[in-house]
Amino acid sequence: MSPFAVPLVRNVLNLDLEPDAEDCIIEAGEAFYKEHADNLWLVLEGDWGGQIYLTIPIALLKKFDTNTIRKIGWLHQAIDREQWKSNDDDGRAAQIVFSTNPDKGVAGGMGGGKLLKGKVWFHPDLDAAKWAPSIRDICAE
After folding, report:
1. Could you tell me if 92 and 14 are in contact, meaning their C-beta atoms sit under 8 angstroms apart?
2. Residue 36 in contact with residue 97, Cβ under 8 Å?
3. Which of 5, 15, 45, 70 is most buried, with most CB under 10 Å away?
């Protein structure tokens, strides 16, 4: 039985996605992500949870290594700077969430976020076409 048998959204791991970090530590092993990939999403948010920018199913990521984490960090920083200029690069957070009931989405301000199977979800205030090249760089086709 899965340790995550309760059907709700749970935060599995907070990530340090600073794009200029010397070393990015990925706490859970690759086997964990492969085993639970259908129920895990990467959630990028800003304004201290006031806006969920996007959610990415872990299964879509090409890799989950330091290079990919840095690319996600750059993307996250760029989106945050566009959406919340007044926050001076503060208030960003990234997490891996587990859900056996993705229809509930993920809580957050400005309507929260959706957890879509096999598809990246963008907040309606984001120009998805603008960010698509960066998403394609980290996600499998």
Report:
1. no
2. no
3. 45
